[in-house]
Amino acid sequence: MAMYKTIRLLSMISVGCFAQSKDSEFTFLLPAGSSECFFQTAVKNGTMEVEYQVIAGADMDVDFTILSPEGIWLIYESRRSDGLHVVESTVEGDYQICFDNSFSRFSEKVVFFEIIIEGQGGDVGGDDEWAGLGEPDGSLLEYKLEDIKESMDSLYRRLERSRQMQTVLRAFEARDRNLLEDNLWRVSFWSCASMLVMLCVALTQVYTVRKLFDDKRRVCT
């Protein structure tokens, strides 16, 4: 029977920090025959994007589910190595994100996942920080405050997207490296086994041939 452990993701990093962040990633070890669940707080009419990858472990696959705050199954995937899902028009509450490895009795998995929350908390710096600044006059080279704010917000979104892509690429690299090292171990093991078998066969053939020409009978003259 699988051991279900529910982990409050907010306590993994710091209280309240994860829920306020628009972009968060996490890598954890999923033991064999167990399930891990995480909770992410969302606001009403927002968007939640979840991407996950199994970067180490035999077969590199897990079961993946997302449950709404009401307990409704929104997404279910069976024995997948990666996936990308977007939950539109979120409701206010805690969404449950679960990874299940109960079908594997011996192999543990290393799982990376990233959560991107949009429509939560406003733009960079918040509108309150801009509200205290008055409209610029003609001495500021006719730049308007809204134009500066829009440019900074656009730059921030582009930088965030670049950082997210780099994080995902690092996860792909880690998975490929683990797969390469595992394949290298298998190739090396079976190569050594094949060489040992060939050596035993060669020694056996030499011994057999020598026995054929080894005549110990005495000849009387």
Automatic annotation (TrEMBL):
SUPFAM superfamilies in alphabetical order: Supernatant protein factor (SPF), C-terminal domain
Any one cellular-component term (Gene Ontology): Golgi apparatus
PROSITE patterns tied to this protein: GOLD
InterPro entries with a match to the protein in the record: Emp24-like, GOLD_dom, GOLD_dom_sf
Keyword Membrane: yes
All residue ranges annotated as the GOLD domain in the record: 35-117
Location relative to the cell: Endoplasmic reticulum membrane; Endoplasmic reticulum-Golgi intermediate compartment membrane; Golgi apparatus, cis-Golgi network membrane; Membrane
Keyword Kinase appears in the UniProt entry: no
Transmembrane segments: 187-209
Mode of membrane association: Single-pass type I membrane protein
SMART domains (alphabetical): EMP24_GP25L (SM01190)
Any Pfam family: EMP24_GP25L
Keyword terms, alphabetized: Endoplasmic reticulum, Membrane, Signal, Transmembrane, Transmembrane helix
Family membership noted in the UniProt record: Belongs to the EMP24/GP25L family.
Entry-linked PANTHER family: TRANSMEMBRANE EMP24 DOMAIN-CONTAINING PROTEIN
Name of the protein in question: GOLD domain-containing protein
Annotated organism of origin: Monopterus albus (Swamp eel)
